[in-house]
Design goal:
- The strands form 3 sheets. This protein has a 7-stranded mixed sheet with strand order 1-12-6-5-4-2-3, sandwiched between helices. It has a 4-stranded parallel sheet with strand order 8-7-9-10, with helices on both faces.
- It contains 11 helices and 13 strands.
- By secondary structure, the protein is of the alpha/beta class.
């Protein structure tokens, strides 16, 4: 048994996937801690890990909506990894509708799937979801939208796999601080920005918004928020919001922070239509490292982005699912497993093209 655990740990550590494990780090921690010895049980109770993984079972995967650029890469990767390991996988589209997703979870429960991987539509619905899977006694990995530790504590066969959203915000702020004029293009002593936010119900949107600006302030910079608008992670919304703000604030805008790349790519269209030039008279940053964004970083149309490692998270989600299938249980406060974000600049962007 010890050998199996050692092997599992070696695999996880050699993949270098885990940023931190166990209780969510305080938000001020950028999540770069190596796994501590306490976290080496991968969030579970080491004593409960049995000998061999159960393979060839059935897995239900619920995605909040298929029409999301980042979650498309993520779900394809999940499906590929699960199928390559011999699982029978069904992936369903929640269409951004929590009631619909609850029905899908119920259908998977009726079908008696061996495990569930769920990307909740609304984090605020986590209690309902956890209640459903707990009552049905189905091992469950939650992904991408993190509930609170208290919510997860209700069920010991439940684990969350994701990233420390604060870290991605900090990296965005650092990308601006690394520019020649540190974001103050017009030299008036302050960084004037607009923020294009994802879905504000989502912790990723909240913390990226907060920590991108905090990084500037922590570096002693004065900041001025010209506008903050909800863009729901959507490219078209990013384009519309940037167009409106560029019309309203014009040259005052020095930085456009977007909570994700899809909105940044939309914003780029409006920047170009307004005759502005990224990295000359305006800066633009996103998160995710979508292929389209990596190209724009390489050709100078985006200042930078942050790798949100879809493949790494999918790999870790399957790894945690197998631990659950093997009988691992998770104690309260040890139910979040994080994969590191990586700062992406023109220097390293090519390393992340898929
Ligand atoms: C990604 C977004 C995505 C969202 C979905 C975030 O982590 O950065 O691109 O739309 O997750 O919940």
């Amino acid at each position: 048994m010890k050998k199996t655990l050692a092997l599992a740990l070696a695999v996880v550590m050699s993949l270098g996937l885990l940023a931190s494990c166990g209780p969510k780090e305080p938000a001020s921690n950028s999540g770069t801690n190596p796994p501590s010895s306490a976290s080496q049980s991968q969030g579970g109770d080491a004593s409960s890990i049995p000998d061999a993984p159960k393979e060839g079972g059935t897995v239900g995967v619920c995605i909040y909506k298929f029409d999301d650029a980042f979650m498309t890469t993520y779900r394809n990767s999940l499906q590929e990894i699960l199928e390559s390991k011999g699982y029978k996988v069904t992936v369903v589209d929640g269409n951004n509708d929590q009631a619909k997703q609850n029905e899908q979870i119920n259908t998977f429960i009726t079908q008696k799937v061996d495990a569930l991987i769920i990307n909740p539509v609304m984090t605020s619905a986590a209690d309902q979801i956890i209640d459903l899977v707990k009552t049905a006694d189905i091992p469950t990995v939650l992904i991408n939208r993190e509930p609170t530790a208290e919510q997860m504590a209700a069920y010991d066969k439940l684990v969350y796999v994701g990233c420390d959203a604060a870290q991605s915000g900090t990296f965005q702020g650092e990308l601006i601080l690394e520019t020649p004029n540190q974001g103050d293009i017009n030299g008036d002593g302050k960084i004037s920005y607009i923020m294009i936010q994802g879905d504000p119900e989502n912790i990723d949107a909240q913390l990226r918004t907060e920590y991108s600006v905090k990084a500037l302030q922590d570096a002693g910079k004065e900041v001025e928020q010209l506008n903050l608008t909800r863009g729901d992670w959507d490219r078209n919304r990013g384009q519309e919001i940037a167009a409106n703000d560029l019309a309203q604030f014009g040259d005052k805008i020095e930085v456009i922070f977007c909570n994700n790349d899809d909105m940044a790519i939309g914003a780029l269209q409006s920047i170009q239509q307004a005759g502005r030039k990224v990295n000359e008279d305006i800066y633009l940053v996103g998160v995710d490292a979508l292929d389209a964004a990596l190209s724009e970083v390489m050709n100078g149309n985006m200042t930078g982005t942050v790798l949100n490692d879809a493949v790494g998270q999918a790999t870790e989600a399957v790894n945690q699912m197998e631990l659950l299938l093997n009988g691992t249980t998770y104690s309260s406060g040890n139910q979040s497993v994080y994969v590191d974000y990586v700062k992406v600049t023109p220097d390293n962007a090519k390393d992340f093209v898929k």
